[in-house]
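[Q] Does anyone have a clean structure-token version of this?
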Amino acid sequence: MPYINVKITEEGVTNEQKQTIIKGCTQLMVEVLNKDPSTTFVVIDEVSTDNWGIGFEQVTELRKQQKR
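[A] Here you go.
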């Protein structure tokens, strides 16, 4: 019973994109590990960019710098 936890930043990911992630992760488990899709769980956690850091910076600040 695979459990896959995908963490992404909260930046406007659509329900369609989330469904594609769920299908893709499930398909990977089927193809690589021969797992049953009916017992494969995929959870997507959306994390605020204030709560996600890269290096010394919050992603929120990094995004602001990229827009300049």
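[Q] Thanks! Anything notable?
[A] The CA atoms of residues 10 and 59 lie 10 Å apart.
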